[in-house]
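--- STAGE predict ---
source: upstream dedup step, 1 unique chain passed
mode: sequence only
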Amino acid sequence: MPAGLLPIIYLAFIGLGLPDSAIGSAWPTMAPELGAGVSWVGVVTMIISAGTILSSLQSVRVVERFGTGRVTAVSVGLTAAALAGFSLATEFWQLCLIAIPYGLGAGAVDAALNTYVAVHYESQHMSWLHCMWGVGASGGPLIMGQCLGAGSWSLGFLVLGGLQFAIVAVLTLSLPLWRDKKLPPAGTDGAGADGGDAPAPISRRALLRRDGVLAVLICFFCYCALESTCGVWAASYCTFARGIDAQTAASWASLFYIGITVGRGVSGFISLKVPDHNMIRLGQALIALGIGAMLLPLGDTVLLVGLVLVGLGCAPVYPSIIHATPARFGSDVALALTGMQMAFAYVGTLVVSPLFGVIGQWMGMDLYPPYLLVFLFVMVVAAEKVNTLMRRRAA
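--- STAGE serialize ---
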């Protein structure tokens, strides 16, 4: 594998993270200017999620035909164009239209790069890969907060789009490094590598019948529902439930992503000694502590600590679930299953985060911490179900 490829993959994940929290951070300011309700941002995230679900489910076919490098460059290009489009929007319906290419750009590259690293690299690289996502995701609100301070959310999206286009240029120049680095076709487990006929890829129905697959999909659904809800609505919760001004709230929302970023950097070293399933448990315990801190009526300092703790807890969960996929279920189905996991993740974003917007608007943003707690509980139950099945298989 070319020595320069891993930094390029890291850079691509910075690009993947940059826009993830931008619209949530800007929404308290954007909504009145666009004549939109507080909960309407959920419509935009639903459209984005629908696009990512579609592209995630098609990731096997797309990557096998065009290769991981090309899929990555084109996908980041789509998100860059969407961010530039957001900066020009003057009506809410325009945001909804521009959200379509944004969503399509995110899904395939997410599944492809996650599987690529899970198959070709050790667990610490998966943690560090998602640390790079956190760099982008925490940088997005900080950039948006500075631009809001200058009085322009449009400028924030324009700056983020420009950074994305710069990453696209680097990815395009790096395409020769991705040659002949194809993932094993789903369902083949390396069959056909010598030129022989490869078995047909496994169907989604057959994959769902495998022990533990449904439980790991539910676990992934709940984790991503929790993460997306926490990230999208952190600024709104701080503003509408805790009385913090919009600019400060946008910057505070980045603390959640900073927690993820720092946590994934540290997790890369811890994972050298701790197996994936225990990394997931560690993360779940920290999330519980963070939500507990937000529930306590002890002032803004404890709220800040809670946001950081939830971010730190989220840090090892996502990369550990993905990295464990080939070992748990086989490298032959790793890309297909990772695509399904991405799809379930975005279903969580599609349904759960917008649902909280409606609940928050009509029943109060104070329900933000209890809402997160519900999905943490279900995630823990599903994760332990997978662990039990894996222990029985190993016995």
